Amino acid sequence: MRSSGTPLILVPGLFGTKENWIRVGKELSQRLGCMVFAVENRNHGGSSMAPSMTYPEMADDLVGFIDWVRKITGEEQVNLHGHSMGGKTVTQLATTPEYAPRIKNLIVEDMSPLGYPLKRAEYLDCIKHMIATDMNKTRSEVMAELGEKVSKVLLYQFVRGNLGEDVNGKAQWTCNLNVIDETYIYLLSHDIRFGVFDGPTLFQRASGSGFLPAAHKARVEKMFPMVKFAETAWSNHWIHADDPKFFVDSICDFLEPADELGQLGRKAMI
């Protein structure tokens, strides 16, 4: 892995883990010639378990990691990417004046800075199923049980990434389910309506997911005056998993344009 160039930090969404980003992270590192880091949000994986998880809190957490990356790489700025909940976290961070100078380029994957009136019932159902699961079983037994209840294949896969085993071989969740359950509606509905990030910004959009509505385009453009949009019709909400070629290509075109205009251009949200 080459380590020259501005480092890139990948921030997952809800239930996202570092392991979800190994494939695309390696490809981005090779193509961009930089170090790529994937983090885990609070109440996930190896990160701290906390009684709350607001966007300002998660932005503060992320700044600490960014400063560590700046220290070990010697770079003053980083390129920052966030997916879903992570996308709203990086939006919160980039539009906070004291944090913004750390960011060279911002990339938001299929997430609006504004909230939603929808509760996304499939996600709520998934969380409820996870909480209700009898954990006095092996990991494989728990996954078999959840496989009958969680309908979305990708959602099932991300849930699987949050299931480990204790020293006795019994299944255990590696995320803080109770706090996630308590804050889920906040995480989806929270608005980031104020602040501006003047740096180059890319919003990646899955046209059919509904997480980045066309009606939010004007607000995005106001908050991010240098924004570009890249859209795929071949993906659901998890672009990096559903359409990894588009995901990697659009980031590389954005960060390293092939000519003065770049290959990406500015695309309208339909």
Describe this structure in words.
This protein is globular. The longest helix is centred in the N-terminal third of the chain and has 19 residues. A six-stranded parallel sheet has the order 2-1-3-4-7-8. By secondary structure, it is α/β, with parallel strands linked by helices. The chain folds into two domains: 173 residues, 3-Layer(aba) Sandwich (Rossmann fold); 65 residues. It is built from ten helices and eight strands.
Strand-helix topology:
Layout: E1 8-11, H1 22-32, E2 36-38, H2 55-73, E3 78-83, H3 85-94, E4 103-109, H4 121-132, H5 139-147, H6 153-160, E5 163-165, E6 171-173, H7 177-189, E7 201-206, H8 217-223, E8 227-232, H9 239-242, H10 244-255
Helix pairs in contact: 1-10, 2-3, 4-7
Number of helices: 10
Q: Radius of gyration over alpha carbons?
A: 18 Å
Average pLDDT over all residues? 90
Task: List segments where confidence is low: pLDDT < 50 over at least 5 consecutive residues.
Answer: 258-270
Q: What pattern of helices and strands is seen along the backbone?
A: EHEHEHEHHHEEHEHEHH
Annotation, overall tally of beta strands = 8
Q: CATH fold name of the largest domain, please?
A: Rossmann fold
Q: Please, what is the CATH homologous superfamily of the largest domain?
A: Alpha/Beta hydrolase fold, catalytic domain
Corresponding CATH architecture of the largest domain: 3-Layer(aba) Sandwich
Total domain units: 2
- Which structural class should the secondary elements be placed in? alpha/beta
* Content of β-strand: 5-15%
Alpha carbon gap, first and last residue:
38 Å
The main sheet comes to: 6 strands, parallel
The first-level CATH class of the largest domain is given as Alpha Beta
What is the topology, as strand order, of the major beta sheet?
Answer: 2-1-3-4-7-8
Shape: globular
